[in-house]
């Protein structure tokens, strides 16, 4: 399951980096706009719309680190979703098959069934049944150790999602502060307070904050969903442990 998840993460990262490379190419094209006519910008406008491209350009330099953080967070959202969906099984169906085998002392068949079933629930049952010859205490200890390992795996990705949730707005605020400084510099250079200059500068500055929040809010939403999904898997692990121990008594 881990290898599958890592492979999927790599695939998603590669697919998500391509748009970033396109934007990087756009920046190169813009730097040489006098000779290439802004072809990459036209392509970006065709794909994302002229309004979106203008909005991104108006945000200034801070938009680039925010979009990198967005790609980073989106990659982990996709990976975490696939990993949790892959780890979820029909608990009742699994227990209906394995509990009768345990009650009949057919541990080899039960071990084979758990081994061929995906997910953390089957993994801890498999680890416990391997110690069936040692009695209930040995099984409980093995299940406890396996559960700790599975929990550490289930918790992977949450730090990365939290990093995205935190960094995106912070980078947005940094861009806003930089934009405000530029706006006041423009006022100082003009030696007069012009409402047009101030309004334009503030608008551009606030775009970065807007983009940071646009990135952070969905990631926070999915982070909460994943937390609920992990809690559900933990409950399934507890129920499976109880049923296995009861069947062995």
Description of the molecule:
This protein has helices at 2-31, 33-36, 39-48, 50-58, 63-87, 91-103, 107-115, 120-129, 136-154, 158-190, 195-248. It has 249 residues and is mainly alpha-helical. The protein has one domain (59-249). Helix 5 (63-87) runs antiparallel to helix 10 (158-190), helix 5 (63-87) runs parallel beside helix 11 and helix 8 packs antiparallel against helix 9 (136-154). The two termini are 31 Å apart.
Average of the residue pLDDT scores: 81
Strand content is under 5%
> What is the total domain count?
1
SSE class: mainly alpha
Report the helical percentage. over 70%
Q: How far apart are the first and last residues' alpha carbons, in Å?
A: 31 Å
How many β strands by DSSP?
0
Radius of gyration: 27 Å
Q: Please provide the ordered H/E string of secondary-structure elements.
A: HHHHHHHHHHH
Contiguous low-pLDDT stretches (5 residues minimum) are 1-11, 13-37
- How can the largest sheet be summarized? none
Outline, from the CA principal axes?
rod-shaped
**Separate helix tally:** 11
Quaternary form: single chain
Lay out the secondary structure.
Elements: H1 2-31, H2 33-36, H3 39-48, H4 50-58, H5 63-87, H6 91-103, H7 107-115, H8 120-129, H9 136-154, H10 158-190, H11 195-248
């Amino acid at each position: 399951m881990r290898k599958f998840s890592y492979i999927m993460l790599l695939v998603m990262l590669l697919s998500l980096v391509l748009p970033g490379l396109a934007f990087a190419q756009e920046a190169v094209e813009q730097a040489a706009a006098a000779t290439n006519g802004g072809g990459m910008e036209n392509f970006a406008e065709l794909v994302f719309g002229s309004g979106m491209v203008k909005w991104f350009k108006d945000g200034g330099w801070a938009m680039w680190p925010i979009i990198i953080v967005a790609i980073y967070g989106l990659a982990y959202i996709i990976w975490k979703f696939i990993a949790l969906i892959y780890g979820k099984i029909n608990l009742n169906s699994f227990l209906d098959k394995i509990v009768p085998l345990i009650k009949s002392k057919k541990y080899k068949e039960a071990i084979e069934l758990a081994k061929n079933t995906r997910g953390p629930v089957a993994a801890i049952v498999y680890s416990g049944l391997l110690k069936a010859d040692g009695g209930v205490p040995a099984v409980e200890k093995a299940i406890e150790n396996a559960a700790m390992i599975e929990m550490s795996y289930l918790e992977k990705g949450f730090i990365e999602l939290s990093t995205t949730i935190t960094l995106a707005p912070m980078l947005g605020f940094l861009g806003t502060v930089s934009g405000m400084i530029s706006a006041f510099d423009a006022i100082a250079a003009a030696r007069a307070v012009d409402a047009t200059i101030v309004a334009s500068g503030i608008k551009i500055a606030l775009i970065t904050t807007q983009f940071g929040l646009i990135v952070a809010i969905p990631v926070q939403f999915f982070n909460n969903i994943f937390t609920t999904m992990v809690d559900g898997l933990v409950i399934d692990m507890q129920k499976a442990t109880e049923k296995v121990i009861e069947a062995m008594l």
